[in-house]
Amino acid sequence: MSVPPPLSPVGPSPDAACAAPVTDVPPAERPTRVPAQGSQAAAHPAPGPAPGPAPDPGSDPAPVRPVRPCLTELRLSAFAGHRQAAFPLGAVTVFAGRSGSGKTTALRAHEALARLGGGAPLAEVFPDPVACVPERARPDTQRRRGFRIGCTADGPAGPVRLDIAVQAEPELRVVGERLSAGGVVLLETALRDPGRRTVQAAWHTAGSAPVTRAPLPDDRLGTALLPLRVAGKTDGQRRVLAAAEQMVVALRSVFACDPQPDWMGTPVPTGSGRLLGGCDNLADVLWRTREECVRRHAQLVGALAAGCARPVTDLLAEPLGDGTVRALLDRGDGTRTELARLGYGELRYVAYALVLLTGPGVLDLDTAGEVPSAMQSLTLLADNLDRGLDVRQRAELLRLAVRMAERGHIRCTAAVSDASWAVRTSGVTVVHLGP
Known about the structure:
By secondary structure, this protein is an alpha+beta fold. Helix content is about 25%, strand content about 25%. It has helices spanning about 40-45, 105-115, 120-125, 220-230, 235-250, 260-265, 280-290, 295-305, 345-355, 390-405; strands at about 70-80, 80-90, 90-95, 145-155, 160-170, 175-180, 185-190, 200-205, 210-215, 255, 270, 315-320, 325-330, 335-340, 380, 410-415, 430. Strand 13 and strand 14 (about 335-340) form a beta hairpin. Helix 2 packs across helix 5. Residues about 1-55 have low confidence and may be disordered.
């Protein structure tokens, strides 16, 4: 495979090896490209389909759009071991497969998209970009190789697609990006001059000029920059803004969590009270949340009672004389057990239950601050979710994830080695990956 191609309305790259589309979309589903400036297509858009008969009152109602933007599909067109892969994402999604089937890779791509949506530069998101290139991808005549990823976000603006082509060699850069909705390409970028650290961008305007063109950095996601560049004066610009903002909100509300039991039981200094991805500061978070939300804390205690081997009546944080705080379990018989005494699986269970029962304000992630929290849905990414958990713990944890997802505030995407236990849980989307 050559370097991913530019996504330009002007035409394919002169290199034949770079002329393939970023995603293999059937012609009937391919979005209409942003018309070239001054084209007849912009002045006289093609008429839409003729109106059909009135809907039958007994027919299925139109699908209800999610109030909170969320990802509904992950596409790995050419990423590490995945080729032309598209995975559905439900409120609770479990990737299952043997070691080497690509479960972790799928979650890594999901997290990478989230970080790009938050404005992170490519070098920070992909510290080893060559590892993302398909193993047998061959360089083109200019020694370029790369990878392609994408996703779909649903919400008030309807389904919005994002596809990105990244060059990994000889230098890391975005060489093409496409944002589309309703069959129309709203943003398209392409690398025109390899000597410059920019890509040429064109976004939908639908005003006196059909498109607006401007250079954008080649190390950032253009979609995340659009709210700063688009004025929103025309219907077309407002459509672009709505699609871009929906995609960014869906991407940014992602928390990758991999609890590390070896760190979780030790006393920690009091700090921000925001849970880290490794959950090593869990005691500090409990010190804050136990007083702030009594109802959620009671639900957490109930979840622990269902998943721990011995009785649990409370989970609390105790300050120590040296400025640190430690977590304790109250057994209800006058005994308090330090968290460090729990088993490996119990500690991971405690950490995941805490994440599912809290919100973005308690987790160490940078959400879209300009959007009310009631309009955002947190997504937990949990690789090796079942590691160290017994049969009862993993079942209880999955049921808790489904129950919280039904409220609309949290989603969960996890990876497990065997999902035979998960397929029996209602509300779970299981994606089976081959060897």
